[in-house]
Task: inverse folding
């Protein structure tokens, strides 16, 4: 049972770190990677873009939700006992400071570094006549026809400004009226953000100009007969969260499509302006957007450094991380190059644990679904899909299986945030191919990662299952770190069958053998195991807890970990993002260590390990330690039983908590300290590089 806030059974009231400020601390860690001179330059640009994209989503969802609740008077959940208004003020102040630091990193370090390496972002004034002629021709052919300047006057009201788009505010002098008029020009989002100045083949010395810079120097042609007085860049972020009252709608897809249309017109949450904007224009924007002063972020150009994603596609391997090609898991390798691996035969012998992107998704998960689709002995395939792509080979395999007459069930979560429209599109494509498509349970997101294949073997039905920590998306599998278990265990097969019956029908199932399933059991199962470790510690028996998650917010779980720590249980928490638990605080969390790892891959797997008096119990799955995961989603954890798999998880945690590996550690004052060099001043290796080497060596050994 979740404890009421402030009722911690003797635990101090200030025992939680605010979740929103903790998220900003996570994005600061992303920024620190961009600031790190040992990271290749184009990767630093990529981290700058990730920081910007992350912050946009944070404002569109978290800040928007907090502000909406304050304005409407709804109860605002906060786990630190402070006024929501004070929390919002702290968020705005901290986010603004981080954005200014973000801009300085680009202007003072990354941009000059790239220029020195032959990748230059130039301004119009730096170009000669020949360059300007080339760009003017490009502008007239590719940009000018799609531009739509909009005047603002008594006959033309202030236009709608879409969220996250770059805009030019323009003041022009009209000689007919002898007045200065205002116009707004949207920078087209479908045109590449950074335009190549020249068309030479070489990539060792390239120049780019920002699209808004190019347009701004062609304004005279957009306003003939007028004098352009000045122009400035601005950008607005809107509330883009989606809320659907599922129990009040008859058609979820139609309701979602309607809500997606409304999303475009959400209220403004943040206004970013270039630092050269005049007061007259700023006053107009503030008035029209009806925002407060603390929501205005004055920044040096260029705004929206998310546009740097485009530069990272430049073919300059010397400015990027050394390429890593995922290896095929040793158990899935064919005996000879001409052999075709039989994944079913392999999985029938022993369970297989794969680790992406170190081990290939295409030769494991994708090959599993494709083999099932083509195998005449396969009768049925069931799969959950949370985020994938419409051109995914997984989707293609499911369609192929349905067209071949197999029973195919796809549970599509169309409410996956910011992927809703894409999910609706390919869900309908699946339906048209004869796949049974269902959309989960009312009021719950289906977030678990499951594939079940039913195969006839020797006149009997055999279950083959994959349970993972990440999405069935071949593209993100190359950059997201995740685990997946392949098994033909009858116990797991029965469990997964029960769960799919719950998801597609009206069954209510509470009994599983090797699975923990949210929302009915998972929280209670974790709390029970945490308490068991505390009892073991008090009795002098071996105890220990190791947790890896994207986020840790749930108060009941955190309080249970505090009590376990006070009982003497060593607790290791490995978290990528939000972390509300405090570490190493005397009398509260003396035995709790918290680490964070960020790098070239996004740490995404969830692992929950318990010493259990020497009989270790380890789960992997889809659930983070957040209210939404434990209470409002269908999540699944599965136990690992193979001793080699348990040893592999132990080795993974040993890397993360080693003093000889680069990582961030949470200090008792709630700040994060990055350790990048050892006591001798030597640069520490990254955990991800170590795992890459470990998996390559394992492939050579043929280990599991």
Result:
């Amino acid at each position: 049972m979740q404890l009421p806030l402030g009722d911690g059974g003797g635990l101090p009231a200030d025992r939680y770190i605010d979740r929103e400020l903790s998220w900003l601390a996570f994005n600061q860690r992303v920024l620190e990677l961009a600031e790190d001179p040992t990271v290749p330059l184009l990767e630093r640009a990529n981290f700058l873009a990730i920081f910007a994209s992350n912050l946009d989503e944070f404002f569109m969802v978290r800040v928007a939700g907090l502000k909406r609740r304050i304005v409407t008077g709804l109860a605002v959940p906060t786990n630190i006992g402070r006024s929501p208004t004070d929390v919002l003020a702290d968020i705005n102040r901290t986010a603004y400071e981080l954005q200014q630091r973000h801009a300085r990193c680009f202007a003072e370090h990354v941009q000059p570094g790239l220029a020195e390496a032959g990748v230059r972002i130039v301004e119009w004034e730096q170009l000669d006549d020949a360059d300007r002629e080339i760009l003017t021709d490009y502008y007239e052919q590719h940009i000018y026809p799609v531009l739509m300047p909009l005047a603002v006057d008594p006959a033309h009201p202030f236009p709608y400004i879409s969220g996250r788009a770059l805009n030019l505010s323009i003041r022009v002098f009209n000689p007919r009226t002898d007045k200065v008029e205002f116009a707004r020009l949207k920078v087209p989002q479908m045109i590449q953000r950074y335009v190549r100045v020249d068309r030479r083949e070489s990539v060792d010395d390239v120049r780019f100009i920002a699209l808004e810079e190019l347009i701004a120097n062609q304004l005279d042609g957009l306003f003939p007969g007028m004098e352009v007085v000045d122009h400035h860049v601005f950008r607005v972020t809107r509330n883009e969260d989606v809320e659907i009252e599922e129990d009040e709608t008859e058609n979820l897809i139609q309701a979602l499509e309607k809500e997606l249309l409304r999303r475009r017109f959400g209220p403004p949450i943040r206004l970013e302006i270039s630092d050269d904007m005049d007061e007259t224009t700023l006053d107009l924007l503030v008035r029209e957007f009806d925002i407060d002063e603390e929501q205005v972020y004055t920044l040096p150009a260029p705004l929206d450094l998310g546009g740097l994603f485009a530069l990272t596609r430049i073919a300059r391997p010397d400015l990027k991380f050394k390429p890593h090609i995922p290896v095929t898991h040793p158990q899935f390798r064919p005996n000879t190059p001409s052999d075709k691996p039989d994944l079913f035969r392999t999985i029938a012998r022993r369970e297989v644990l794969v680790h992406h992107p170190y081990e290939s998704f295409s030769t494991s998960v994708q090959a599993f679904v494709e083999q099932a689709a083509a195998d005449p002995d396969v009768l049925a395939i069931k799969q959950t899909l949370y985020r994938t792509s419409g051109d995914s080979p997984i989707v293609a395999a499911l369609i192929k299986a349905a067209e071949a007459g197999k029973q195919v069930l796809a549970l599509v979560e169309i409410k996956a945030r910011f992927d809703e429209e894409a999910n609706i599109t390919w869900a309908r494509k699946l339906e048209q191919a004869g796949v049974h498509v269902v959309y989960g349970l009312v009021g719950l997101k289906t977030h678990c990662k499951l594939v079940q294949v039913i195969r006839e073997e020797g006149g009997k039905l055999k279950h083959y299952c994959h349970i993972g920590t990440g999405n069935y998306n071949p593209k993100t599998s190359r950059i997201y770190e995740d685990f997946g278990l392949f098994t033909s265990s009858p116990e797991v097969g029965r469990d997964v069958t029960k769960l799919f019956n719950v998801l597609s029908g009206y069954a209510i199932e509470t009994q599983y053998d090797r699975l923990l399933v949210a929302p009915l059991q998972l929280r209670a199962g974790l709390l029970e195991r945490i308490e068991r470790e505390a009892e073991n510690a008090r009795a002098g028996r071996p105890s220990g807890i190791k947790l890896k998650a994207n986020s840790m917010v749930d108060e009941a779980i955190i309080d249970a970990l505090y009590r376990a720590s006070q009982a003497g249980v060593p607790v290791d928490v490995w978290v990528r993002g939000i972390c509300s638990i405090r570490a190493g605080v005397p009398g509260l969390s003396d035995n709790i260590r918290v680490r964070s790892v960020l790098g070239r891959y996004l740490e995404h797997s969830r692992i929950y390990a318990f010493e259990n008096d020497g009989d270790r119990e380890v789960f992997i799955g889809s659930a983070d330690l957040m209210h939404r995961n434990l209470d409002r989603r269908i999540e699944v954890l599965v136990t690992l039983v193979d001793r080699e798999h348990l040893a592999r998880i132990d080795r993974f945690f040993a890397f993360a908590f080693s003093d000889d590996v680069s990582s961030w550690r949470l200090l008792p004052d709630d700040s994060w300290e990055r350790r990048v060099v050892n006591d001798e001043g030597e640069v520490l290796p990254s955990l991800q590089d170590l795992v890459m080497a470990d998996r390559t060596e394992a492939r050579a050994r043929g280990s599991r």
User: Anything to note?
Assistant: The longest helix spans residues 84-116. The chain has 18 helices and 27 strands. The mean pLDDT is 89. The chain has three domains: 36-319, 330-510, 516-701.
